[in-house]
Amino acid sequence: MRYDMPLFRPPSEGDNLIIQATLGCSYNRCSFCSMYRSKHFYARPLDKVFADIDEAAALWPDAHRVFLADGDALALPAEQLEAIADKLAAVLPRLQRISAYATPAALLRKTPEELTRLKGRKLSLLYLGIESGSAEVLRRIAKGASPDGIAEAVGKARQAGMKVSATVILGVAGRHLAEEHAAATAALINRVPPNFLSTLQLMLEPDAAADFLGRWDGRFEPQDDAGILWEQRMLLDRLDPPAPVIFRSNHASNCLALAGTLPKDRPRLLAEVDGVLAGGRHLRPAWLRAL
Length: 291
Hints:
Elements: E1 17-20, E2 22-23, E3 42-43, H1 46-59, E4 65-69, H2 78-91, E5 97-101, H3 104-109, H4 112-120, E6 123-131, H5 135-140, H6 147-159, E7 163-170, H7 178-191, E8 196-201, H8 206-214, H9 225-238, E9 245-248, E10 259-262, H10 266-277
Parallel strand pairs: 1-4, 4-5, 5-6, 6-7, 7-8, 8-9
Antiparallel strand pairs: 2-3, 9-10
Helix pairs in contact: 1-2, 2-4, 7-9, 9-10
């Protein structure tokens, strides 16, 4: 299998088959993200996608989980996604799940009926970047989405029976808006809980830093690790979702790895953060952190 590089996938998809249904990201304007800046969004022709699927099936006939790359495969028309799902099912007899990145806009463009049909074809897990529940922070980072739009997108996926794995970014609001960021993000999660929630820690690649910082009118003050931990604590303290949410902060960018289920494990998670703030536990060394 040859991929159009760079190739990105969620950490949990590391052992699964990856098929590039698209190249790049359909939005590709988030100021903090440099993942696809070297690519223009492109929907790959079905014959090329099918050829990759046939080659992959010959190499790995027992593959049971497939991730559709690149950055926003859900932006494809529903009929094209259905054709890809049908092809995967035809050549992978053990297929259990198809997953993909999804932007809020791509989800909002799909009808409930389209999402239900895709779920019926085993496209059952979507990775969605919430980043923040604050309208001001979303504007500053050029997310191209509003809190209400994100809530509607998550709700549509959940109503179709799909699972949603959401990410938020600690430090993305700087010191000035950290409390607003934490409070508004918790409010959004409590309003429409995803199945999975992960925190990442802001890390800017050199080719994204100028764009990101230029949108803050000189008012962005980066958080140090202590500030990140307080931000994490404020977020956790306010998270009280009406349905269980599996929470992780084990992405390589984080200074502190946490794991639990909210709201059940919130007291323990808060105690772990408090223990670190009191100096009782070491943080992940900076040289071990990465995007």
